[in-house]
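Q: Convert this sequence to structure tokens.
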Amino acid sequence: MITKNMDLTVSIIDIGINGEGIAKHDGAVIFVPFALKDEVVKVHIIYAKSKFYVGKIVEIITPSPYRVKPLCPYFSKCGGCDLQHLEYSQTLNFKTTLVSNTLKNVGKLDVADKVLPCISANQYYYRNKFSFPIGYDTAGYVGMYKENSHNIIKIENCVIQQPWALDVITLFNTFLQSNQNSVYNEQTKEGLIKHLVCRMEQNHLLVCVVVNGKKLNNYDDLIKLLQTKFDSFSLMININELKNNVILTENYKILYGNPQITLNQDGLQYNVSLNSFMQVNTEIATMIYNKVKDTVKNEVVVNAFSGAGFLSGLIAQTAKKVYGIEIVESAHLDAEDLKKNNNISNLVNICGDAKIELPKIKDFEFIVLDPPRKGCGKDVIDTILSVMPNNILYISCNPATLARDLAYLGDNYQIEFVQPYDMFPQTRHVETLVSLKKVKVG
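A:
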């Protein structure tokens, strides 16, 4: 019988959906974070339940030939990355297999022959945005949460962030150490500075300090520090006096510069703010969006879950007409601004719930789905089945909900291809684009 605090030597037989090693001992399943397939490891059992156990690696007795030294000194300490210890080509294979197996196991869809190899770009230094908590020892510091906790690990850099992040972290640590701003304490619910949130687009940096109060003391010092490294930046505070895990509220105060960035991309001009939804990996997002645009040719298209409207505007360049449906009003207003600023005449933006608005559109032939992690859900899929467009493109960040939703479509649609993309290198997460065509009857 396995018990907590027991030491065992086990063989890793597979990698789980979260990138952890899987072993079996006397019929029991043991999950071993940061272990790789075919390794033999000594583990210390840190979590014991009747059906499964979790073991922490004490010693790697037989390493995998694909084990590599992580680039980041904080790997396995913070909760940001899962797979830096795995050779990158094998990470891509893992994600391809993960998508294929999830479609089979969750959706009962045996479509391995339709799953293409995972597409990648930069495996490091790719993120255009970060949100880091602020910790405190003898002074405040920028940090990352330890896996499955709110314990803050001090960091000096993050190798999946774009290179500008190193300068921002260094400058903000200097600011924290040299002025009178206190740091928020989750236990006491006291202190001022909670988080540092930043985004860089086309060489303009948006910097936001989240505060448990109404102001940031000595912010001129921070402006001067940022001016030593950045020619174009904005500084704002987000006033967040909530005592929960919400990072950003709607209450911003601009301290320096413009709160928005005007971008020119793929023939579109649009504004981006700190809370605008945009993919954190610009290169991979561009690949996906261009694939979507190139697939749509002179057809009437619905873009459900259309967000701030960039993809709708892009599709409008090749489609006959586009309907963008978005339930969040602020995102819908951003989409309306994009339409107006680019003089797009064949785009109609609708603020509403997709399952309610879809049946009102009678003439569309193509639907693009880009839902959040929870997926579309049966209500939306049932609405699609009531309309039966000829083609569906589904963009997903969660293989499990993707598999569920594709299963809801049943035999009405045939999967043409499943293309994974490594939107989030060094992590367990994967983005997937699926193309489906309506099955002809008779």
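The CA atoms of residues 321 and 346 lie 5 Å apart.
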